[in-house]
Amino acid sequence: MIRKVFNKAFGFYLRQRYPRIRHFMEHPHEVQQDLLMQLVGKAAATEWGQRHNFSSIRNAGDFSRQVPVQDYDHLKPCIDRMMHGQPDVLWPGKVIFFSKSSGTTSDKSKYIPVSRENLQSCHIRGARDSMTLFYRHRPDARQFEKKTLLMGGSLHQFDAEAGTLTGDVSAVMIHNMPAVARPFVTPDIKTALLPDFEEKIDRMVRISGKEDVVMIGGVPTWTVVLFRKLLEYYGKSNILEIWPNIQGYVHGGVSFTPYRKQFQDFLPSENISYQEIYNASEGYFAAQDDFESNDMLLLLNNGVYFEFLPMEEWNSENPRAISLAAVETGKQYALVISTNSGLWRYTIGDTVTFTSTRPYRIRITGRTKQFINVFGEEVVVENTDKALALACQKTGAVAQEYTVAPVFLKKGKKGGHEWLIEFDNPPPKPAAFAAILDTELQNLNSDYEAKRYHNMALQQLQVHPLPPGTFARWMKARGKFGGQHKVPRLSNDRIFVESILRFRDEELRI
Questions:
Q1: What does pTM read for this prediction?
Q2: What is d(CA 111, CA 72) in angstroms, rounded to the nearest whole number?
Q3: CA–CA distance, 254 with 256 (Å, rounded to integer)
């Protein structure tokens, strides 16, 4: 009874928050300009602010002229000193938490500062915004009556003397979860932050499988691993037999398109609400507000000032970003952010397209370093995700994970694309599946279609099925198992594909 009253009160609180969201939806440019000046003013006395004369900045034009677009290598020396306890470098004061980037395109880890302001008014506020939108969509939501299952990463000490900690952004948020929310999550915080992902999954199965879970949050890749363990342990055929009151699944990190059919099988109910969020290591950027659509509302008042790089600027030596007011729907942009953790005009590597500018809604389309354009085909992750989902739908196959790489031109042979796919339910006719997948990709990408015309430039794509669990075992062997680590979808070279094929062959020899 007490929990029902608490949930009702929390629902009322969330309804009172919605006018704040509506305000930045209706006044996006004013909100963003005010936010930029707040960020610049706050950081004017920092080392970075003095170097770039923040005290003289009066508007967005001054800001873009005085601060160049940055990547991680530009900021890394500053971040390294912050990780060893030096204050007032990129942001005022001392930063304790550093979010470890998943690093799908590189073996080198990136550490993103998470200041107190960034944690509270970006990541945690973003989570509240997402809940506000969920409760608005589902007045019957019961997150604060029963249990929400969270799949997070872990935290590790970096510098004992400085007191700095590193880990997945999910772990930073769980570690700093408000006390009022802790009774409503599962597993317990100690289990949720375990560094050994396999031990964590096993304990989650035993602990959370006995709870009354109504909401699940996590990266689809690892949620599927948990679901399979749950069904095996409890001897059930679907997750609703374990958690019959589930109302929603909040997901992010990777596109949900290839996973949708699997989740419909795990959760066979039309009463499940799926909400996509965009909570990166660098900030909580967007959340789905229209549950009938497949895009997300850009959160414009959460400590992040947004700019965008058009595709033609991605490889420029001095890239020129455009403001929110200048974006157009349907075009590809790389995200550039300035945040209340000291990231200034920072390119995070993600690409988005706008589906609406009133209000501003986006879809994540991939990564600036995850595409294939060896032959001028300009294939992005959004294309391959959709093509694979459509091919599976038409053949009855169910794909778990995949990665794609180019097949380079050789004497007497045309180029093409090579797909490595791990199937839950393989297609009955692999050759027919490859042909359908190729056709769907042509339908989605006119540049690929042009290169495939009469096999003149590219041959039909190749599909190589992998044994079940190959991707997970390969990720584990690379030290990237669990948390927010993701399988790289596309690459313009063959480094990942060759690594996975070698790993597969070594397993087959054992």
A1: 0.81
A2: 9
A3: 6
**For strand 462-466 and strand 416-425, is the pairing parallel, antiparallel, or unpaired?**
parallel
Query: Residue 508 is which amino acid?
Result: L
In the block, tokens 């947004």 appear at 306
The three-state DSSP-derived secondary structure of 162-218 is CCEEEECHHHHHHHCCCHHHHHHEECCHHHHCCCCHHHHHHHHHHHHCCCCEEEEEC
Residue 5 lies in a domain: no
In whole angstroms, how large is the CA radius of gyration of the chain? 23
How many whole angstroms separate alpha carbon 43 and alpha carbon 41? 6
What CA–CA distances, in Å, run from 132 to 12, 16, 142, 208, 289? 10, 9, 13, 25, 9
Strand partners, 310: 333
Amino acid found at 117: E
Q: Over pLDDT 90: what percentage of the chain?
A: 68
Helix axes 28-42, 2-26, angle to 10 degrees: 100
pLDDT > 70: percent of the chain: 97
The pLDDT, as a whole number, for residue 411 is: 63
CB 126 within 8 A of CB 284: yes
Q: Is residue 396 part of a domain?
A: yes
- pLDDT tens track for 225-281: 899 899 999 999 999 999 999 999 999 877 787 788 889 999 999 999 999 999 999
What's the pLDDT at 106? 41
Phi, psi torsion values for 193, nearest 5 degrees: -105, 10
Helix axes 197-208, 220-234, angle to 10 degrees: 50
Percent helix, percent strand, percent coil in the chain, to nearest 5: 40, 25, 35
* Full domain range(s) for residue 434: 371-509
| 403: CATH | 3.30.300
Distances in whole angstroms, Cα of residue 99 to Cα of each of 87, 110, 183, 184: 17, 8, 25, 25
d(CA 270, CA 227): 18
Q: How many domains does the chain have?
A: 1
Q: Is 257 part of any domain?
A: no
Residue 483 lies in a domain: yes
**Minimal CA–CA distance to 351: which of 368, 336, 339?**
368
